[in-house]
Amino acid sequence: MHKHRTATLSRLHLGISCLLLLSACSQSYVVLLAEDDGSLGKVQVTNQQGATILEDNQEAVDLGTEAGKTFTVSAEQIKEDFGAALAASPQKPLSYYLYFEGGGTTLTAESRADVPKIIDEITKRRPAVDISVIGHTDTVGDDQLNAKLSLERAKSVAELFQDAMPDASKVTIDSHGERNLLVPTPDNTAEAKNRRVEVTVR
């Protein structure tokens, strides 16, 4: 199906799915793909023949046929038609939460176990990676001290990734203190999920 043609490709991210467009002299079609986590949106494709709704994974519509007629594109055909475009497209950002014991910069045992996973992702994204590290605290203690503590937490986490980061990497470190609580609480409330650093790898 659709062999031996020169095609132009574009990928449109829809937040919960992606849309791939193949344009060729013999045939042009649009196919809807689920995201890596399986989430899938819905899209309306409109041409001179009318509108067609795509809502299933790998469901496609030929832009030269009547509206409403869809077909399923095999994984093999998607790889053949769009493999190069998919490989070249930017990787999606990944976010992680690392949690801390109370009052300091010591990660919990569970979060220490997550650090190698983040380092592995950083290594995969060579030759350059953009990392955002944001420190947070719970509401126990003074606001200014918590702002300082959350910055210390962010810096301590960033140092864990230092050896894995390519030379062209950019690291942004920020401190939110007890602002932007993950779990809303009154003042002077200990909450483990608020004692965290948020790491985003792009």
Automatic annotation (TrEMBL):
Residues 87-202 form the OmpA-like domain. One of its GO terms (cellular component) is cell outer membrane. Pfam families: OmpA. InterPro entries: Bact_OuterMem_StrucFunc (IPR050330), OMP_bac (IPR006664), OmpA-like (IPR006665), OmpA-like_sf (IPR036737). Keywords: Cell outer membrane, Cell projection, Cilium, Flagellum, Membrane, Signal. Gene3D superfamilies: OmpA-like domain. It is found in: Cell outer membrane. PANTHER family: LIPOPROTEIN YIAD-RELATED (PTHR30329:SF21), STATOR ELEMENT OF FLAGELLAR MOTOR COMPLEX (PTHR30329). This is Flagellar motor protein MotB. It comes from Methylomonas lenta.
